[in-house]
UniProtKB/TrEMBL annotation:
It comes from the Bacteria. Keywords: DNA integration. This is Uncharacterized protein DUF4102. InterPro entries: Integrase_DNA-bd_sf, Integrase_DNA_bind_dom, Phage_Integrase. Belongs to the 'phage' integrase family. It holds the Pfam family Arm-DNA-bind_3. GO terms for biological process: DNA integration. Residues 23-103 form the Integrase DNA-binding domain. It comes from Yoonia maritima.
Amino acid sequence: MDGSYVDTGRLGKKSGPHIEKRLTAAFVKVAPAGRHTDGGGLYLQVDDSGAKRWLLRITVKKRRRDYGLGSATVISLADARAKAFDMRRVAALGGNPKAHTRAVDGKDLTFEVMAKRVHQRKFGDRLNNGKHIAQWITKSAALCIMFLPANTGRKKAVLTPRP
C-alpha cells in the first residue's frame, strides 16, 4: 500500500437515528414480553400477561419523566408516534406535557370551578339565601388558589394570601 487507499468505513454504531430498527405494526401485534424501543423515547411495554402499553420517556425541566400514552390495543403505532411528537414538542418549549394534555382534553380545572361544584353539591338542594352562597364562595376565594389550576403542585403559591 502506498498510502493512497483510505478506508471510509466507520467502526461501531452509526450516528443518528436507526430508522431500520423502528417498530412495525406487525411486530407490535406479536411482541414478546419486555420493553421495546421505537426511538425518541417511545417504548412499547409488554407484560408477561400480554398486556401492551405505550410509554414516553422524556426530560421535562431537567427531570426524566415517564408518561403513559395508552394501551397498544387501543392506540396504534402511528397514533402513539403522533402523541409522543406532540408531548416532546411541548417539553422542548418549556411546558408541561401532562398539563397540556389535560388542557386539550378539557380537564384543566381551577380551584374556583371546583369550589363552586362542591358548593352546588353540598348546598344545592337546600333553600339557602343568596348572601350565604356569595359569602361561601368569597371566603373560598380569599386565597389565590382560586385561579390556579387544580393540578398544580406548588405549595408556596397555594398558601399565599391574595392581596
